[in-house]
Amino acid sequence: MPLATDDFLDIDDVTPAELDALLDRAAAMKAGETDPRLGDATLGMIFEKPSTRTRVSFETGMTRLGGHAMFLGPDDIQLGHGEPLKDTARVLGRYVDGVMARLFDHADVETLAAYADCPVINGLTDEAHPCQTLADLLTIRETVGEDATVAWVGDGNNVGQSFVVGAAMAGIDVRVATPADYGMNPAVFDRAAEFGADVAPTTDPDAAVDGADVVYTDVWISMGQEDQREEKLAAFDGFQVNRELLAGTDATVMHCLPAHRGEEVTDDVLESDRALVWDQAENRMHAQNALLVELLGGE
């Protein structure tokens, strides 16, 4: 059944039932149990930020589905060179079957969705990363199961914000530990509460990790924040995911990549049997393929 939404700008644009169905479809497609096709569909991919996983997973995914992906970087189109975003959106909507956008400002992806006459997918903004959440939930489902407790440790960034809401929708318990000045938008916890989650943020990473099945972290210095490097490294002292933090637990470790080894996570943890990061990276493609089929009407 097609999704009720035309666009996927954040994880709660779908219902919990639709999210569960998306993950079911992703698992079935990954296992080769079903092979839906997108025919000659074209996905326009707008990138304001460089990317490895987002570009390669969407481009390869569209190829595997029988469609075509078109990379549109800052120097390839008029976006950022004088043309209003709404004009770009109107034109793209008449050419392509869907748009995936990796942008800085979340309002920009909302503008694209408002003016493009085709489905728009948020491939990342400064506020949200719902495609990563789909991959995260698929990975948890495959490994520790959805009866899990996940500790988010580090920056209250876009990845974490989407994950907290998505986990609530999937019935996964989440604890959030961030430095006092780098927490998540309180509205994120309100959204999670709508799905029955009671997330009490803390500034104590040890408390968050105690008894957790999964520990999830991300970079402390995101793209565009390089001027805050020294300030943030000082503020995040004690939040590194390392052997000491994980001691006494059987927790696996997640990271959306790229990782700054030696900052938010140590090299030995990423290279250990605890790490689920490579499964997460692979699952970007499988989860997004399911999303593409649902939004673009694959058969």
Structure characterization notes:
This protein is α/β, with parallel strands linked by helices. The protein has two domains: 138 residues, 3-Layer(aba) Sandwich (Rossmann fold), CATH 3.40.50; 150 residues, 3-Layer(aba) Sandwich (Rossmann fold), CATH 3.40.50.1370. The protein is 41% helix and 13% strand. The chain contains twelve helices and eight strands. The strands form two sheets. The protein has a four-stranded parallel β-sheet, sandwiched between helices. A four-stranded parallel β-sheet has the order 6-5-7-8. Helix 2 links the parallel strand 1 and strand 2. Helix 5 crosses helix 6 and helix 6 runs parallel beside helix 7. The longest helix is centred in the C-terminal third of the chain and has 20 residues. The chain is globular, with a radius of gyration of 19 Å. The termini are close together. The model has no long low-confidence stretch (mean pLDDT 95).
Attribute tags:
2 domains; alpha/beta; Rossmann fold; 41% helix; 299 residues; globular; four-stranded parallel sheet; ornithine carbamoyltransferase activity; 12 helices; Asp/Orn_carbamoylTrfase_sf
> Percentage of helical residues?
40-55%
Tally the helices.
12
Q: State the total count of DSSP E strands.
A: 8
Cα distance, first to last residue? 11 Å
What is the strand arrangement across the widest sheet?
2-1-3-4
- Characterize the overall form: globular
So, CATH architecture of the largest domain?
3-Layer(aba) Sandwich
User: Looking at CATH, which topology of the largest domain would you report?
Assistant: Rossmann fold
- Identify the quaternary structure here: single chain
Q: Can you identify the CATH class of the largest domain? A: Alpha Beta
Structural class assignment: alpha/beta
Q: H/E order of the elements?
A: HEHEHEHEHEHEHHEHHEHH
Beta-strand residue fraction: 5-15%
Number of domains: 2
GO molecular function: amino acid binding; ornithine carbamoyltransferase activity
Keywords: Cytoplasm, Transferase
Protein name: Ornithine carbamoyltransferase
EC number: 2.1.3.3
